[in-house]
Amino acid sequence: MTQPDSSTAPVPVSPSAWSAALARLAADRAAVHAGGGSRAQQRQHDKNRLTARERIRQLIDDGTPFDELMTFAGWEMYQDVGGCPSGGTITGIGQIGGRPWMVIANDATVKAGAFFPITAKKVIRAQTIALENHLPVVYLVDSAGVYLPMQDEIFPDQDDFGRVFYLNARMSARGIPQIAAIMGNCVAGGAYLPVMCDTLIMTEGSGLYLAGPALVRAAIGQVVDSEDLGGAGMHASIAGTVDYREPDDEHALRRLRALADLYAQGDLAPFARRRKAAESAPERDLTDLVGFYGSQTYDARDLITALVDGGEFHEFKPEYGETIVCGFARVGGYPVAFVANQRTVIRKKLKAGGEPGLRTRIEVGGVIYGDSADKAARFIMDANQAGVPLVFLSDVTGFMVGRDSEQEGIIRRGAKLVNAVSNSVVPKITIITGGSFGAGNYAMNGKAYAPRFLFAWPSAKYAVMSGNAAAKTLLDIQLAALKRSGTEPDDEDLLRLYDEVKAKYDTELDPRYAAARLWVDEIIEPNDTRARLIRALDACAQNPTQEEFRVGVFQV
After folding, report:
1. Number of helices and strands (H, E) in the chain?
2. CA 186 → CA 122, 141, 208, 231, 265, distances in Å?
3. Which of 229, 377, 411, 435 could form a disulfide with 420 if both were Cys (CB 3.0 to 4.6 A apart)?
4. Tell me: the pLDDT tens digits for 1-36?
5. What residues contact 42, with CB distance under 8 A and at least 6 apart?
6. H-run or E-run covering 485
7. CA–CA separation, 109 and 86 (whole Å)
8. If residue 297 lies in a helix (H) or strand (E), which one and from where to where?
9. What is the per-residue pLDDT across 454-511, written as a single tens digit (0 to 9) for each?
10. pTM for the predicted model, two decimal places
């Protein structure tokens, strides 16, 4: 195996940076969990209703974790109308009756559970995860419907509100269980969601109607109260829409748990049938290994062995294409195929016949070179042939550029890797541990490449290029525009412009910015990575089907 270049001393880890980042993450998460605040929570209790998070705690099995997804949806968005914490909806995977269920719960403390644009996208992403993994779904409905001032951003497009009901129907056709409990308002188009489920529960005092009393009066002049129009009693005894009528939240959740426990368990995925008893991983604090700022070198093999059962890792082609590390292991007993960016500096041997006297070159960690792209593409094909899930550990700067790289065919070889990632049929999970820049994001299974789950550490940076490079490029563009207009900025103007551009770009690099827009499914702490990965594999294991692996035309 080629050894990392020892001439470059690693930058020491800064424990204080990680401590500060994790403390900030905990504080920000707590702020999101507060939803619409204590007054809004009290209003919910005054109606004899639980908050969405209280409902979820009563719903899932005692002592089991709730793996929340898209916690930071809507983070620092819609500030002009008071914000939309967590997108006004809580989603995640929890155990009910010993099996994983996707839970989608409206948070009525946030604008009465109204759907903002990000709310619809979050529900659609949660449904998509459920569909891809054959996860049964529970909907805890308590929503005033579409947030009307933004209806043009919520209603009409392919990935807007209507897609929710489309996925409702598609999951039903696939035989994926869906249970809904109406525990408050359920109005307008949103009324279709629970009615398209297998089973519908409704509590006293809730309302289910296409148009509420005020709209009915305005539209057709009919005066009717909420109970006669769409109350639980009417739907249970007259319309026949409701399957189970319950007096309150507690009884509805008890009924829901009992019904969920009756559903048959389907077959498991082929890879899950090869699961063995899990061995513990070597104990290691991952924040000691991976620096927060990305300037510290580390060996990707150390990160992988800290995540896998018994620290046992079968590395594929360890002496070739060394800036990507590939290999097989087990995680939680499941077989797994890892593709990880190597972050050491490598002294690579060159082919004979090169420049006289030069037989090695330095390769920078985090950069994808032609041979590493070839290796990773081939390994992804092997993983698909073996039917083993792929886990991408993404800490990538991008593809190598320059004359030598272009002459070595970096575009052709990179396209081959993107092809393999795109057409992969085994479950893919991506964990962004550091940079995720440019086309490297694509090669390492970014959001556009349909990962079953995409997690990010608080150290993740997510953009087309790094902050300093982008700031300089954008500054050059602005300077050219100023000069064309006849303005010649002085040094003070240049510094101010650079700082403004850099500050904006750094904000957009933050993983919360990505999480707010659902580019990542969740921000997780490094030392939770193995546990979250195992439970993500538990979810992937629920889908027994695997398509035929076909890659189309390869540039060779």
Report:
1. 21, 20
2. 18, 7, 5, 10, 30
3. 377
4. 333 333 334 444 456 899 999 999 999 999 999 999
5. none
6. none
7. 11
8. none
9. 999 999 998 766 666 666 776 777 777 777 777 777 777 777 777 777 777 778 889 9
10. 0.91
| Tokens describing residue 120 | 């619809």
On the 0-12 / 13-18 / 19+ scale of CB atoms within 10 A, 222 is: exposed
Count Cα neighbours of 127 within 13 Å in the Cβ-side half-sphere.
Answer: 27
Task: Report in angstroms the alpha-carbon separations of 491 from 394, 494, 497, 498, 505.
Answer: 38, 5, 10, 10, 21
Measured distance CA(498)–CA(493) in Å, rounded: 8
Q: How far apart are alpha carbons 24 and 26 in whole angstroms?
A: 5
Mapped onto helix, strand or coil, the DSSP state of residue 436 is: strand
C-alpha to C-alpha distance for 527 and 406, rounded to whole angstroms:
39
User: CA-to-CA distance for 318 and 325, rounded, in angstroms?
Assistant: 7
Phi, psi (5° rounding) for residue 124? -60, -40
Coil, helix or strand at residue 30: helix
- Residue 203: per-residue pLDDT: 97
At 196, which amino acid appears? M
| DSSP characters over 101-160 | EEEEEE-TTTGGGPBPHHHHHHHHHHHHHHHHHT--EEEEEEE--B-GGGHHHHSSSTTS
